[in-house]
Write a structure and sequence with these properties.
Blueprint: E1 2-9, E2 13-15, E3 27-33, H1 37-50, E4 55-60, E5 64-66, E6 69-71, E7 75-81, E8 86-93, H2 100-108, E9 116-123, H3 130-141, E10 147-151, E11 163-165, E12 168-170, E13 173-180, E14 185-191, E15 194-207, E16 210-214, E17 217-218, H4 219-227, E18 243-246, E19 255-257, E20 259-263, E21 268-271, E22 280-286, H5 288-297, H6 304-307, E23 312-319, H7 320-326, H8 330-338, E24 346-352, E25 354-358, E26 364-367, E27 371-377
Parallel strand pairs: 3-4, 9-10, 23-24
Antiparallel strand pairs: 1-2, 1-7, 3-7, 5-6, 5-24, 8-13, 9-13, 10-25, 11-12, 14-27, 15-16, 15-22, 16-17, 16-21, 18-19, 18-22, 20-21, 23-27, 25-26
């Protein structure tokens, strides 16, 4: 396996220049960008001219992770040429009325094969119910292979996200990549670092990923009381105060859910994943040091000795809420991650509206406000 990392800025092009020698049917280009779509098209076209046979996959972001740095107003491309791994892409279109469990099944069913080793999913980030999507994926794959990835972002604007579909940035699409063969090593991990605040409340009315009532009170009204002056900045302010969710009282590890939108008329809030009726939720807040430490702990299950000196790529997906909280300290969490990797690792990724990573059971789920990491190498 060979890999290269490139950065694009309008007017300057790709630096370093794209190596045409990396082209091939087993070459993958992962492209992440917060640029306007016309600039993305120009950036993609320049890479495509050099790599005509490669598979392209990418999405919009709230900023890029490029080695140990956070980048804005640019594009990052990780080019990976596998030696023994085959690749296959599949896309699904979605809208506000989609059955996301059905979408998840249709997304990965065409990728099924005895030698499927891993799946990477990049999804639009505004209308998708990420937990329902993963339910559908799990119905097909049943945790047999690791599924990782993330939801595209649009900084803190929540207006339009896109994924690359046949070299074109398109809204309301989901892409899945299948990686095949027994020569690929995969590791993954996810960790948060948030603390809980205030009372735990019961979800007394919800539908899917829309929350209407907590403890019999309008959810949005109650949430605004916690936010105080920041309530005027919703939904962006909601990134700073996510919810910890426990489906049952004996759940040891709560999931984190981030707000995607609010409806003043219905006093409701829409989240990136399901908020089941009868579940227990609690407001969360950030501790800077714990967020930075959490980024490194996403690699708790990996040791540098595993990869030896083999070329290794690291896909890092962190939540936009973490980026907003960390502010000027955002690169500290990327550095904490890089410190746990061998020196030859190429690190690329993005700030997202949601992260996808397996649970201890092996079945993938939606996470919010985490640093989620996927490692690939061919020994």
């Amino acid at each position: 396996m060979r890999s290269e990392l490139h950065q694009y800025r309008p007017g300057a092009g790709w630096r370093p220049a794209i190596d045409a020698g990396m082209d091939g049917e087993s070459t993958l280009v992962l492209l992440f960008s917060d640029l306007p779509e016309e600039d993305v098209r120009a950036a993609v076209a320049e890479v495509r001219a050099r790599l005509p046979r490669a598979l392209f996959m990418g999405c919009s972001t709230a900023g890029q992770i490029h080695q140990q740095h956070f980048q804005e107003r640019s594009a990052t491309a990780l080019v990976v040429r596998f030696d023994r791994c085959r690749l296959r892409l599949h896309y699904e279109a979605v809208d506000d009325t989609s059955d996301f469990r059905g979408t998840g099944r249709r997304l990965v069913a065409p990728l099924e094969a005895p030698d499927l080793a891993a799946v990477l999913v990049l999804s639009e980030g505004l209308v998708v119910n990420g937990s329902a999507l993963m339910d559908g994926v799990n119905q097909v794959l049943e945790g047999r292979v690791p599924v990782t990835g993330g939801l595209a972002a649009d900084d803190d604007r929540f207006q339009r996200t896109w994924v690359l579909v046949e070299d074109e940035p398109r809204a309301r699409h989901i892409c899945a990549l299948g990686l095949y063969g027994d020569g690929l090593e995969v590791r993954y991990g996810s960790f948060g670092g948030w603390d809980v605040l205030g009372l735990e409340r019961v979800v007394t009315r919800s539908e899917g990923n829309v929350l209407y009532e907590l403890d019999g009170q309008p959810a949005l009204e109650l949430y605004k009381r916690y936010l105080g002056e920041k309530a005027a900045e919703l939904p962006a302010a909601g990134l700073l105060f996510p919810l910890a969710l426990r489906r049952k009282l004996d759940d040891i590890e709560p999931k984190v859910r981030t707000i995607l939108g609010v409806d003043e008329a219905r006093q409701s809030m829409t989240f990136a994943g399901d908020i089941p009726q009868g579940a227990f939720v609690q407001l969360m807040y950030a501790n800077f040091d714990r967020l930075v430490e959490g980024a490194g702990r996403a690699l708790d299950g990996f040791s540098v000795e595993e990869a030896g000196d083999a070329p290794l790529v690291c896909l890092a997906v962190s939540c936009v809420g973490r980026r907003l909280v960390l502010g000027q300290r955002v690169e500290e969490e990327i550095e904490a991650l890089a410190e746990r990797l061998p020196p030859q690792a190429h690190i690329a990724g993005f700030y997202s509206y949601g992260e996808l990573s397996p649970l201890a059971s092996g079945r993938c789920d939606l996470h919010n406000q985490t640093m989620t990491v996927t490692l690939w190498w061919e020994p």
